[in-house]
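Students often ask what a 'structure token' actually looks like in practice. Rather than answer in the abstract, let us consider B3 domain-containing protein Os04g0386900-like, a protein of 165 residues. Its sequence is given first.
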Amino acid sequence: MLPRRSSRRVGSFTAEVENGAPLPPPNPTTNLQGDEVKPLSGKPYCLMILSKTNLSPRYAMGPSTSIKLKLPSTMVRTVLTYKGKSWDMVYNGHRKGWKLFAAKGWKKFAVDNCLKIGDACILELMESRNKKIIFNVQILRGDIPSKFLENDTMGQTAEMAIVID
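Now compare that with the structural description of the same chain:
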């Protein structure tokens, strides 16, 4: 005996169903992975794709140049917030050249959130004052294939660029 076929409308799509089994209603969160991406609020932000330098062993991280122009040029208490939790650290805005978060605070954030090379952090500047800076953070998981991570020189220069077709 041939299976019974019927067409059912789900959202704006029509699906062929065998044996008339009911389809579950569409759920927009079904395809979300562990990290929820939220719309930005319109405040200044920067996108940082994490490299080996941002993670073990140095844990050197700081906001991009466009955001640095909006930050105080002093050593300032900084708070990164992500998924309802917060991490305290210091922004070293008084330094010439590299203006980074203090390694200890950034390392705690990176380890607590299992950050890896290739992940991206969106830092949205919520508050910037001489006594306190607050960033809301979103994490986008990169999951770079391991064959690209095994060779330290890949992606370091234009000649060794990683090309993904």
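One point worth highlighting: The helical segments are 65-68, 103-112, 146-149. Ask yourself how you might have guessed this from the sequence alone, and why that guess would often be unreliable.
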